[in-house]
Amino acid sequence: MLDVIVLSVLVASFVLSLTTFFQKGTPLYLRLCPFYLLATILVQKIGLYMSQHGIHNGFLYSSYSNFEFIFYFFVLRSIIQNKRVKSLLLFILIAYPLVAIFNMFYFSAESDFQSKIYTVGCILIVVFCIIYFWELFQLPKTINIKNEPSFWICTAILFSYVVTFPYWGLVDFMKTAPKIVLNNLLNLLMIINILSYLLFTIAFLCRIKIRKSTS
Fold it and tell me: Is this prediction's pTM over 0.90?
């Protein structure tokens, strides 16, 4: 049941993300979100099909997690203002996929999830999210964060990785855990995904100005 809800919220978020193409002055990272969400939908459908047919999908999810990290690094580079941090993120955008590909083909079995490289990606994401929030709250003038899409997206990213990191970072050790524990953890992950996609949806809609009619 939860997996159906996750997919439904994800599809709804994708549809609403298309509104970014009709909003003036939409930053590039927001315009790329529909493509990211569409890729997420396809990966979830393919991963479910592979699981139902007894096909190992570790390589699929490892590849997708690397793509996801690269996309989030790009988003963070787009919303962080510090030039040194932006330069560092540019280096990571180039280096991370190279390291991930090297690790995938030389240090991991095809069916395994890359938990070590995932751990590195999680730590980097959390650090740069904290830098973004530190910058945001150090601004000389007050901004209305409820209308700031970068705030909602960064909140979704930070929330998702902080909560899911203990599971995916230790997935190799989870294989021996009792089935009931694994099922409960998977349910928790799906709830986290639902909340994250809802935060993404807020980011897409918060820039829409609703005109109030006057009598």
Answer: no
